[in-house]
Amino acid sequence: ISASTSVITAMGHKEDALAREMAETLAKMVKKNVVVLCGIHLSDISKEEIGCVHDGMEQIKDDMARIWRKK
After folding, report:
1. Mutual orientation of helices 16-30 and 47-70 as an angle, nearest 10°?
2. Handedness of CA 52, 57, 58, 59 (dihedral sign)
3. Are 22 and 57 in contact (CB under 8 A)?
């Protein structure tokens, strides 16, 4: 199963990769259209903080997958 994604990114923002990954994963899982909104607002974010944000997104994705599997 595949998914097609479209991303609209605000100038200077880079969370589009996380939003795209989340949308593709969830759309494939539920076999439906999904919408993912993502806004990360950390000035001068460090590599360590980027890693923490990515880990948090992975946890959210896993939690959502678990919830949808129950339905």
Report:
1. 20
2. positive
3. yes
Q: Identify the residue whose tokens are 């969830």.
A: 26
Condensed to tens digits (0 to 9), the pLDDT of residues 23-62 reads 888 888 888 888 888 888 888 989 999 999 999 999 998 8
Query: What predicted TM-score, i.e. pTM, was given to this entire model?
Result: 0.77
Which value, to the nearest 10 degrees, does the dihedral of the CA atoms of residues 49, 9, 65, 26 take? Answer: -150
- Contact present, 34 and 69 (Cβ < 8 Å): no
8 A C-beta contact, residue 57 and residue 17:
no
